[in-house]
From TrEMBL:
The keyword Transmembrane does not apply. Residues 207-217 have a biased composition (Basic and acidic residues). Residues 185-227, 291-311 are annotated as: Disordered. PROSITE patterns: WRKY. Gene3D superfamilies: WRKY domain (2.20.25.80). It comes from the Eukaryota. It comes from Linum tenue. The keyword Nucleus applies. Residues 113-178 form the WRKY domain. The lineage of its organism: Eukaryota, Viridiplantae, Streptophyta, Embryophyta, Tracheophyta. This is WRKY domain-containing protein. Coiled coil: none annotated. Keywords: DNA-binding, Nucleus, Repeat, Transcription, Transcription regulation. It is found in: Nucleus. One of its GO terms (molecular function) is DNA-binding transcription factor activity.
Length: 311
DNA sequence: CGAGTTTGACCTGCGC
DNA sequence: GCGCAGGTCAAACTCG
């Protein structure tokens, strides 16, 4: 509703390019504090492998990490259709589980994990849940808690594969991920970074609750699956390097649109923000109910081979 | 008490 | 026009 910003509409109508402009404007105006990405001390390559691996255990990979992965692994090219083709293992994102539904909508399939709380760095507030016609599982609706952000996401469990969660992202984030803001007064856009993990909620909710029907013991398993650990909000330093684009999208979109080094063209693509959410966190944790609130996202979110695998 | 979740009601689009 | 299904609202409730 009101949240829906011009960016949102523009995206729907035209292309995300418009959004980009808007976002940029916002950035210029509102995010003065934004500091340009600093050079990454760690070689991208290591970052990719090392950090991501580590993050798997403790915290969700950051955009930076993912970015690095992509940069290293794939010099890919983008097809006009919006899907990205990767080289080495060149598989289109579509094949990897990322599908572009609309100019500003993407779906991501994630493997569900049980405990971790994967946080995509953004806070989400659940505003609805609906049972879907041919699915035994309900779909949850989330909005970014930032009042100026129109990003939304829908989380539902795949009826075919119970351990797969399908997340549909819609809209761009017009702000940085929380962790990224040190102590910004506020104007920043989002709320100040929360040092503690207030409630990371969503995790529970999304999947937890809805899916909680049966907390699946760590199904995550898959070896090549990237699972986000939780790190709470903290890790989300998404886009530290990603310059302005950082705020816009999280990983996927990022990847989608900038398969190439995002440093340059940044998001000219379409945008979408994605976060990930999902997973329940086991009931135990999240489910506790609101475990949080805002959540970030699900507990652990893992990119399965089918979805996105950086490794 | 504030922030977030839950959940039924309401709204809207679409097919018949 | 009607009914269904999906999406959103908002009051009530929970938790820290
Ligand atoms: Zn947002």
């Amino acid at each position: 509703m009101e949240c829906r910003t011009a960016a949102h509409e523009a995206g729907a109508i035209a292309t995300w390019f418009d959004d980009e402009l808007i976002v940029r404007q916002l950035l210029d105006n509102d995010f003065a504090f934004y500091s340009p990405p600093g050079p990454n001390p760690i070689p991208a390559e290591e970052l990719a492998t090392t950090q991501i691996m580590q993050s798997t255990l403790r915290s969700p990979p950051t955009v930076q990490e993912i970015q690095a992965q992509w940069m290293n692994q794939q010099p890919e090219s983008v097809s006009d259709s919006g899907s990205v083709l990767v080289s080495p293992s060149r598989v289109s994102l579509r094949e990897r589980g990322i599908n572009r539904i609309d100019s500003n909508k993407y779906t991501v399939k994630l493997k569900w994990c049980e405990n971790g709380m994967a946080d995509d760095g953004y806070k989400w507030r659940k505003y609805g849940q609906k049972s879907i016609k041919n699915s035994p599982y309900p779909r949850s609706y989330y909005k970014c808690t930032n009042p100026r952000c129109s990003a939304k996401k829908q989380v539902e469990r795949s009826r075919d594969e119970e351990d797969i969660i399908i997340i549909t992202y819609e809209g761009l984030h017009l702000h940085f991920a929380y962790p990224f803001f040190p102590a910004i007064p506020d104007g920043g856009g989002d709320n100040p970074p929360t040092p503690k993990r207030p409630r990371t909620t969503s995790p529970g909710t999304e999947s937890g609750e809805r899916f909680r029907e049966e907390p699946r013991p760590g199904t995550e398993s898959a070896s090549s699956v990237l699972t986000y650990g939780n790190g709470g909000d903290s890790d989300g330093l998404f886009f530290m390097n990603a310059a302005p684009q950082g705020l816009l999208e999280d990983l996927v979109p990022f990847v989608v649109r900038n398969p190439a080094p995002l440093l340059s063209s940044s998001y000219a693509g379409d945008g979408v923000s994605n976060n990930n959410s999902l997973c329940s966190n086991s009931s135990s944790s999240c489910s506790s109910h609101r475990s949080s609130s805002v959540t970030s996202s699900p507990s652990c979110f893992s990119w399965s081979p089918e979805s996105l695998s950086f490794l």
